[in-house]
Amino acid sequence: MDVNCLKKLRNMCQNISVLYVEDEEGILIQTSRVLRKIFDDLDLASDGEEALRLYKNKYYDLIITDLNMPNIDGQALSSKIKEHNTNQNIIIISAHKDVDQILKLVQNGISGYVLKPIDVDMMFEQIFQSVEKINRDKMIKHHNKVIKKIEEQSLLHENKHILDPLTNLYNYSYLVDMLSYTTQKYAMLININGFRLINEGYSYVHGNDFLLQFANVLKTEAKKYDFTTFRISSDNFVLIKSDMNYNCKKLRDDAIKISTLLEKKDFKISDEKDLSVHVRVAMIKGHSNLLEELYKTMSYAKRNSLKYAMYQDICDESQSAKEIIRVKRILQSSLKNNLVIPFFQPIVDSDGNVKHEVLMRIQEDILKDEYLTPISFLQIAKDHNYYNQMSEVTIFKALEFATSTAGVFSLNFTYSDMKNSEFLNSLESYIVKNSLAHRLIFEIVESDIIDDIAVADSFLKRFKALGVRVAIDDFGSGYSNFAYIFNINPDFIKLDGSLVQNMLEDEKIHFFIETIIKFAHKFDIKVIAEFVSSKELYEKLLELNVDFMQGYYIGHPSKNIQESLR
User: Fold this and answer.
1) The pLDDT of residue 219 is above 90
2) Which of 349, 365, 369, 471 is the most buried (most CB within 10 A)?
């Protein structure tokens, strides 16, 4: 682990209490020296009995224990601790590679598993994942305390000096006070376009009456999405929420829903006339300088005539703006001129049976047979709201091709796709109408499942009911926990390509892949290895009983399915 990563881990571990259990004195001394580089609060135990005594007298955020010890071994110790605290984070260290035992520990809820002799980087990787979860849980608890404190303060002050006298919304002073709490927040600043024209064209009385109507509608709508509403100046309103399970994608979606309702509403401007409004929305995720950054974002939106702007978009100005603009023009042209093209890469089993994964490509120039791969445009497409449309075009073109071509096709879906209800309705209708379900596999990347299991689960159940099969893509990235697989119940898992690429040179990665394969086969899940680039890799994966393989050794992506195989 490089110095910067170690510093980051050290910062994350500052307030983490750890109990390290190891019966071999030499290993205990050596490993504890390493652990003290990142943990200030570290206690040691030489066996399971001593560990239990310490555990009864002190709370520990994380327990790191050897598996094989006299009297009470690591597995028994973990079980006894889990009886007291089912959420206890535990990392097991062992020299044994017994897959059944590892599976049993995973099912019992251990946080990680490290092999002896201890690879420090691998141990730090497991610690990083556990500590990240611990800190996230602590933030949620802190968030709940802060909310409770704010509610208590609201009652204490009887809402007098914290409310805007015109709209009865919380005021600027109360917002500043609320922002003094350091929990992470999501916020949007809503500005009414051209509000001053109401004051100038009618009167300030009409303007105030309009603001009161607007504030009431905004507060009601914001409450549906758990936002707290503030009026901070004449025609500027701020919506705030603190939710550890929230994200920027949801923030943008909610901003669009709220602003759309506001613009559909007719507000009374006089006895004879109604008035509709247009708003501009600035959004941010953060906790320090939040107001200042919201104002910067709003200024950016006004300068660039944007209806919606996320604070992170401002970074475009300090990055390669010309390159971003160039790619955006290509994306616009590709959608306008029907140049988003599905490519097909073969996936084969040991008997030579072939199915194909559908991959997105862009034809940069209609006169040239040259195509851009996602690495050059995907992030910009997502950041600037082109991705959804491009994904839909790719998928429906592939489905249209499938109606006239035999074979099985594997399609990629992201969290954004899974939340797009209109797209999903059209997709389901097309699949049913053309009887395609049994010939389709839907791939979802592992990180999207972990980020929102409820959304993924709903999406998968809907299409599995039709007969569509499911694959988890990039499985094993970050050496993640297997436990959520029991809820998803996939038909396939695709090994993360970075693992496959390095398995010939790294014994531990080799063992990790072998463990995944055995684990999957125990639950009748087929395993696909991607990034298979050589004969040596192909033969090694055959030895490990991988069910399917994909990569340049098998065949390159091609718009012509017949040309995709080597």
Assistant:
1) yes
2) 471
Q: For residues 468 and 440, is the Cβ–Cβ distance under 8 A?
A: yes
| Cβ(23)–Cβ(69) below 8 Å | yes
Q: Tell me the three state secondary structure of residue 195.
A: coil
Nearby residues of 366 by Cβ (< 8 Å), 6 or more positions away: 337, 339
**pLDDT category of residue 318 using cuts at 50, 70 and 90:** very low
Domains, the chain, ordered by start: 3-137 (3.40.50.2300), 159-318 (3.30.70.270), 321-563 (3.20.20.450)
Task: Please give the pLDDT value at position 224.
Answer: 93
157 vs 336, higher pLDDT = 336
Angle among Cα 445, 515, 469 to the nearest 5 degrees reads 40
Provide the pLDDT for residue 246. Answer: 85
* Spatial distance between the Cα atoms of 185 and 286, rounded to a whole number of angstroms: 5
Distance of alpha carbon 45 from alpha carbon 23, whole angstroms: 8
Q: Two tokens at 416? A: 């954004």
* Residue 449 CB burial class (10 angstroms; 0-12, 13-18, ≥19): buried
Contact 66, 78 (CB under 8 A): no
pLDDT of 173 > 90? The answer is no
The rounded distance, in Å, linking the Cα atoms of 140 and 421 is 29
Burial of 388: CB neighbours in 10 Å, binned 0-12, 13-18, 19+ = middle
Q: Which pLDDT score, from 0 to 100, does residue 130 have? A: 87
* Pair of tokens at residue 279: 């708003």
Instruction: Give, as one character, the DSSP assignment of residue 411.
Output: E
Between 537 and 301, residue with greater pLDDT: 537
pLDDT value at residue 351: 85
* Region label for 439, one of left (φ > 0), alpha (ψ between -120 and 50) or beta (otherwise): alpha
Model pTM above 0.85? no
Angle, helices 421-433 vs 453-464, to 10°: value is 20
Could you tell me where the DSSP H helices lie in 465-531?
485-488, 497-502, 507-522
